[in-house]
Design a protein that fits this description.
Elements lengths: L1 E6 L19 E2 L2 E2 H11 L4 E6 L3 H8 L8 E6 L6 H7 L1 H4 L4 E5 L2 E3 L4 H8 L5 E7 L7 E5 L5 E6 L8 E9 L3 H7 L10 H10 L4 E5 L4 E3 L3 H14 L7 E2 L4 E2 L3 E3 L4 E3 L2 E2 L3 E3 L4 E3 L2 E2 L3 E3 L4 E3 L2 E3 L2 E2 L4 E3 L5 E2 L2 E2 L4 E4 L10 E2 L4 E4 L1
Parallel strand pairs: 1-4, 1-6, 4-5, 8-12, 14-17, 15-18, 16-19, 17-20, 18-21, 19-22, 20-23, 21-24, 22-25, 23-26, 24-27, 25-28, 26-29, 28-30, 29-31
Antiparallel strand pairs: 2-3, 6-11, 7-13, 8-11, 9-10
Length: 355
């Protein structure tokens, strides 16, 4: 089998964090979401991966390279415009050939990986397998309606009145017959070739499409609140270790990872949390569900349930920062003017003096 990762979206729902950064490279628990997807595919035994790229392709290429760090081969597949998931499959036909493949959205995080799903599909005679999960607001997703036997009756993209709460997760498995489908369908009202329409075509034309209902957690990291939730989930599952320096005046509990080169000075870190490489935490408190990325400085401040990206500086903040995402190369400092209230989503290279 081969792997196909879709990393061409603009990430507008994550602005300003993704204004000049690929959304798939925003880190969850100090690892870019795209890297987690590559690892999930590699752990399933797949070594040949195509990555569909768009406007942020240069950044994706620089970050991922040729894939050798994961023991895989990466081929980049430029998509001229975001014309739909089925369009991404269509332009990837030469790379995929007649092999079965798994398609994984590059901004999704799923509990438990996909190794079991890959083995199940590889040993079956199904033409496709789609992963579903129950969601609270199915109108925002592609939705599957199942028949009495548990098979797929109908798939609809973002329906106004959903027939079920089972959403397409963003992980799909296909054989070569999917190319018949993507070449047969027409663009939707959004002007895109919808993968739901392609799968529906397979169903209506007698191909075997197997639905798998995922019972664990799954998060589409498309919005800031989703990024924070994904960060919470992944931090809670990490095996934590301390590789950096922690001085005798600091308290760091067993649910904290301190990466190499990091320094914790006269501070309290309560996990689950992760402190990145060459980051300094001085006279500060870092609370649960916080990820602070590499080369960042936090001093005389408190922060929890937040994500801080690399090369940022948080100094002298008298009140606790919570529920925030702070971009790269950001400076957050204290300004002695009242009132006091902090809740932020800050883009890269921002400069904020807090009241």
């Amino acid at each position: 089998m081969k792997g196909l990762i879709l990393s061409g979206g603009k990430g507008t729902r994550l602005y300003p964090i993704t204004f000049n950064r690929a959304k798939q490279l925003v880190p969850i628990a100090n690892k870019p979401v795209l890297f987690r997807v590559i690892e999930a595919i590699q752990e399933a035994g797949i070594e040949d991966i195509g990555i569909v790229i768009g406007d942020t392709g240069a950044e994706i290429r620089e970050a991922v390279g040729d894939g050798r760090r994961w023991g895989v081969r990466v081929t980049y597949l430029p998509q001229e415009a975001p014309l739909g998931l089925a369009h991404a499959v269509k332009i990837s036909q030469e790379f995929l050939g007649d092999e079965r493949f798994v398609m994984f959205l590059g901004d999704n995080v799923i509990q438990g990986g996909i190794s079991g799903l890959i083995r199940q599909f590889a040993s079956s005679d199904w033409n496709s397998q789609v992963v579903l999960t129950a969601v609270d607001q199915p109108q925002h997703y592609g939705v599957a309606e199942l028949n009495e036997q548990g098979g797929i009756r109908r798939l609809v993209e973002k329906p106004r009145n959903p027939a079920s709460n089972l959403a397409l997760v963003g992980i799909y498995m296909f054989d070569h017959n999917v190319f018949r489908a993507v070449n047969a369908i027409k663009p939707s009202w959004r002007g895109e070739l919808e993968i739901t329409d392609a799968i529906q075509w397979l169903v209506e034309n007698g191909y075997a499409v197997h639905p798998y209902v995922h019972r664990g957690w799954w998060i589409d990291t498309g919005k800031p609140i989703d990024m924070l939730e994904a960060n919470n989930r992944v931090l809670a599952e990490l095996s934590h270790q301390v590789e950096g320096y922690v001085d005798r005046d600091s308290k760091v509990d067993h649910l904290v990872t301190v990466e190499r080169g990091a320094e914790i000075i006269n501070s309290v870190i309560r996990g689950p949390a992760i402190i990145g490489e060459h980051t300094r935490i001085v006279n500060s408190y870092v609370g649960p569900f916080t990820s602070i990325f590499h080369h960042t400085h936090v001093e005389d401040s408190e922060i929890e349930h937040s994500i801080v990206l690399d090369h940022s500086k948080i100094v002298g903040i008298p009140s606790r920062i919570e529920d925030s995402i702070i971009g790269r190369d950001v400076e957050v400092t204290y300004s002695p003017i009242k009132p006091k209230a902090y809740k932020m989503t800050l883009g890269d290279h921002s400069r904020v003096g807090l009241l």
